[in-house]
Predict the 3D structure of the following.
Amino acid sequence: MSNEIGELGEGIFNVAISRDYKFRPRHLGEKWPASDFYVELIGPTEIFFFIVQVKATESGINNKGNLRVKVPKKKLHDLNSYYCPTYVAGVDNDTEEVYLVSVNTRRRKGISSLPTKFVLNKQNRIKLFEEVQKFWLNSDIKTYKRNFNHKI
């Protein structure tokens, strides 16, 4: 049953992130241990992207207003090891709401419930787009790539 819950959650995330045609998500499949989706921004001439781990539930919201999903510390550390923006998407399969949380630090423990402050709606998809674009525009990747001494 948990496979079905996870697959439905991934499908809901795929639809939610695709609205407005701002993002191009690609499901990575079962073989990727730390990530479920590679997502590109649509529009900029450069390729800007981010990585998402999806966690789905049918247990809903707890009394503190957080989504009842668990993400182990190791999975968060693995996700944080990518040198790009990374997020956990919590999906409430019953309401089809998707919530995002940035993973940008090495946490001392896992997540026992996911905050619901950043629901993936139209307004927040715009914020997410701008956040990811800003990350890449403020990185020094172009200079590094241009000056990279490869041996091949």
The chain has four helices and five strands.
